[in-house]
């Protein structure tokens, strides 16, 4: 059944990427509810390669500061939560738990290129689910790529072996005053064959 206009507005039509944050916090229950929605999104073979690190304290965000490009520092430092969207290159080690299909693990264990491509693609997809889930829960989301991934991995992910993909700032944004940036039309971006 299609969503009603209110839900579509929340997810797409009126949803905006915030430019500034309010000081309203995001509690751990909301973070858990967010992940509980994200984990339900489809991934190839139910591999679920995304891994998320939620930076919710000022100390954790300060550790992120050196990795941020200059234009992203204030946005990240003032956001209630910054999420490192990462992926696990060894996601296939969880197939015994996530997908009982025989020999599925061996396909990826034997082909590092296939495993990395699959982990990156599906981890990115799960990051997209996080943006929509955040909006569905009444949060605003600001995805960003302006950061040093190696520094983020060395600072936050080294013990896990996960690979950083992008960041999402979460919170309650102040109303956006600028007009929405243009988008491509259907005819510019799509082909029907």
Question: TL;DR?
Answer:
The chain is of the alpha+beta class. 42% of the residues lie in helices and 14% in strands.
Features:
single chain, 193 residues, four-stranded antiparallel β-sheet, 14% strand
Describe the protein in words:
There is one protein chain. This protein is α+β, with helices and mostly antiparallel strands and 193 residues long. It has helices at 5-13, 28-38, 58-64, 73-78, 95-98, 104-109, 112-136, 149-157, 186-189; strands spanning 50-55, 81-87, 140-144, 163-171. It has a four-stranded antiparallel beta sheet. α2 crosses α7 (112-136).
Give me the secondary-structure topology:
Blueprint: H1 5-13, H2 28-38, E1 50-55, H3 58-64, H4 73-78, E2 81-87, H5 95-98, H6 104-109, H7 112-136, E3 140-144, H8 149-157, E4 163-171, H9 186-189
Antiparallel strand pairs: 1-2, 2-4, 3-4
Helix pairs in contact: 2-7
Amount of helix: 40-55%
Could you tell me the strand content as a percent range? 5-15%
* SS-based class: alpha+beta
Largest sheet: 4 strands, antiparallel
Number of strands: 4
Q: State the helix count.
A: 9
Shape: globular
Cα distance spanning the termini: 26 Å
Order of helices and strands: HHEHHEHHHEHEH
Tell me the radius of gyration: 18 Å
Low-confidence region ranges? none
Determine the mean pLDDT.
Answer: 96
How do the strands of the widest beta sheet line up side by side? 1-2-4-3
